[in-house]
Amino acid sequence: MDIGEVARRSGAAASALRFYEEKGLIRSTGRRGLRRQYDPEVLDQVALITLGRSAGLTLDEIGRMLSVGGRAAVDRQLLAKRADALDEQIRQLAVVRDGLRHAAACKERDHLACPKFRRLMGLAVRSAVQRPKSRGKPPRLVP
Amino acid sequence: MDIGEVARRSGAAASALRFYEEKGLIRSTGRRGLRRQYDPEVLDQVALITLGRSAGLTLDEIGRMLSVGGRAAVDRQLLAKRADALDEQIRQLAVVRDGLRHAAACKERDHLACPKFRRLMGLAVRSAVQRPKSRGKPPRLVP
DNA sequence: TTACAACTTCAAGTCGACTTGAGGTCAAGG
DNA sequence: CCTTGACCTCAAGTCGACTTGAAGTTGTAA
Lengths: 143, 143
What we know:
The structure is a homodimer. By secondary structure, chain A is mainly α.
């Protein structure tokens, strides 16, 4: 397949696909003339990348996860560890979400005066402090 | 309070606080010499900013909520929408986590070839040709 | 009074994930 | 054969939220 077809079928821009390839997240099978050719299986990989991106993972993280193809038990440990880290990240996001949801529902005029909100906010802040700062573009939101 | 104390107590860097002030998200009460002075209530505002940031709001959005009077004029719709977006993000993270966890346990060398993994990832079922036609409920297709 | 830590301003740099633009190549259809 | 549109490379630009660095000022403790 040409890059254009991959783009059409995956929803990712051709420029993004070139970028992924440059970063080693996907591979083309060769060229036809100048043009990159891709196997259909690349569609799965791009889908995985897209999924990871919308979950807020960086391309580096995704790359690391993709690259552990059936290797040793070391990698199993690594994978399990990453899953645990995701659990933690999910927990933190849930706290923030609860805070937001309460703020949206609370009748209190000034949210900063609501004890419940303040408590939730405190939690969110504390967990935000110890989290690595995520820079760059925020995750692509799925509407 | 000096900016340094606000930084210490809020967890935000002094440079970030100056940045927030420049953007109109917080206000100093004046100067002592050159130095900005802050009221303690700025701590609440910074906490709110931090909460909003970790929920994925932009400083502009947060600024709009903070800008009306001293009270936080929170946009409930926006907050609810953001909470929903967080739900979605959490859902996607959970999918990735489950995939990782499965990959850690699965013997398959190529995870993309494993049906269970594919199902977890919500990937389209591959090559229907080589699998027996199932009677009963057709698989739910993920678009 | 002097040292110095803590501030100040302003410009420029950084990070991640791409996008955009200029200028060039090429395969296929008419 | 010629056109055309889809591709190519490479450099630079973009966006948000800060950070960093240089160069200067000042409150305060010794």
